[in-house]
Amino acid sequence: MGAPKYVLLSYDREAEFEGEDGYEETWALCEDAADLFADPPPPARETYELLGCAPGGALREALTRARATGSAPLGELTLEILDKSGAAVDEWYLEDVRVLGDRPCARDLTRRDVTIEGTEHDDNPYDYPRCPPLSPGYRLLDPEGGPNGTCRDLARVREPQDDPMEPPVRLLGCSPQGALRAALDAGEEDLGHAKLLRVDASGHPVQNAAEGELRAWIPSARGHGLVDLTLDLWSERPPLAAREVWELWGAGRPVEHNRWGRCGTDGRRFWLGTALDNHEHGRPDRPPGTTYHLDGRHITDLPGFFCALGEAVNGPGGYFGWGLDALNDCLHGRWGAAPPFRLVWHDSAVARRCLGVTPHAVHRPPAFEELLAFLSERDRVDVRLA
Fold first, then answer.
1. Using DSSP, how many helices (H) and how many strands (E) does the chain show?
2. Total-model pTM
3. CA–CA separation, 355 and 357 (whole Å)
4. Which end of the chain, C or N, has fewer beta carbons within 10 A?
5. CA 138, CA 129: separation in Å to the nearest integer?
6. Packing angle between helix 240-248 and helix 265-277, nearest 10 degrees?
């Protein structure tokens, strides 16, 4: 058997939820896995009708263009949910909205039923907005809070869709042990719930890979006594970028800086999650006033900035935030560096050139100057550009 890349553990969802220790049993060491990685599908675009709509602002302009050309982009649309007095009680968001057309409202010929297409925002508190009793409906707003009109109701137009069939994960060259070995020897069909971990060359866990139900096994072509297992997932699959990142961590925690630099943006984003999962909690912060050196040669995107910052503070493979909210938490201490501290940003011209403002983007990443302003808030970080 070759060096295993994965360890299969027994899984008890209730025990994990309760925070119990010691319930996991090693069931198998696995040489490799097939059909494990897959990027999530793009957010589903849904079709909606703004019923009893009185369009205004950019929505009215987009509707005029849609009547002439068949459809028109609108961008982000906020639906402000109103109570019976007309006061806002909540908000619901659609992104990348496109206006498809309109028709007279059957209940009020002074209004229109407007058909739009868009994607639900990840921050929506629920799948579909509901107005309270006697509500007049929704106030429609643009991303800056400007008026886009009103509507009395919202309808989602659904078309039946078949869910794509995803293949199970195949765990290759597994050496079963413990309760799994006993179950296989007894010919049991119900093999149980399992968790799959990616491990490095020394067998140290790198990151959780998947969770699911063991469904079947066959003798493995990889060696006598080994088996190939079939795992039906109930968790999301690791993204394609995980394969590259886990290979870079395959020999253990990185010992050289900038290994993340060979990854694309998706890989860098996943690297940050791997670095967080491997962060050593409980180590004392270095004292306030410490100087850290940020290697800026590979900061060509926002995830690259956070990869470099994590390594500047906590060494190769280190973590110090993956976004502005997480960075703000780290700047309160207990993550390796006690503020205030000095950050010498080497080769800062790379980031200044690459971290620009994306025009017309609602949820754009912060630009270079905005990052500097965020770091220097309340004199937490003294940034010196080099």
1. 9, 16
2. 0.82
3. 7
4. C
5. 10
6. 60
Q: How far apart are CA 45 and CA 117, in angstroms?
A: 7
Domain extents in the chain: 6-40+164-238, 45-157, 243-385
Of the candidates 138, 135, 119, the residue with the CA atom closest to the CA atom of residue 52: 138
Tokens of 172: 């290759």
> Cα(77)–Cα(98) distance, rounded to whole angstroms?
10
* Placement of tokens 């007279």 in the chain: 104
User: Mean pLDDT over residues 99-108, rounded?
Assistant: 95
Which one, of 74, 46, 69, 70, lies nearest residue 59 by Cα? 74
In a 13 Å sphere around the CA of 108, the CA atoms on its Cβ side amount to 11
Contacts of 380 (CB under 8 A, 6+ apart): 331, 339, 340
Cis? peptide before 205, omega within 30° of 0? no
* Residue 361 pLDDT exceeds 50: no
What's the DSSP call for residue 262? Answer: G
The answer to whether residues 80 and 88 touch, using CB atoms and an 8 Å cutoff, is yes
Q: What is the pLDDT, as a whole number, of residue 14?
A: 73
Torsion of CA 323, 338, 279, 325, to 10 degrees: -20
What digits encode the pLDDT tens for the residues 273-315? 999 999 999 999 999 999 999 999 999 999 999 999 999 999 9
Structure tokens at 121: 């925002």
pLDDT range class, residue 42, cuts 50, 70, 90:
confident
Report the CATH superfamily, name and number, of domain 243-385. Answer: Barstar-like (3.30.370.10)
| Residue from 139, 74, 130, 143 nearest 102 by CA | 74
Q: Please check whether residue 267 is in contact with residue 241, taking contact to mean a CB–CB distance below 8 angstroms.
A: yes
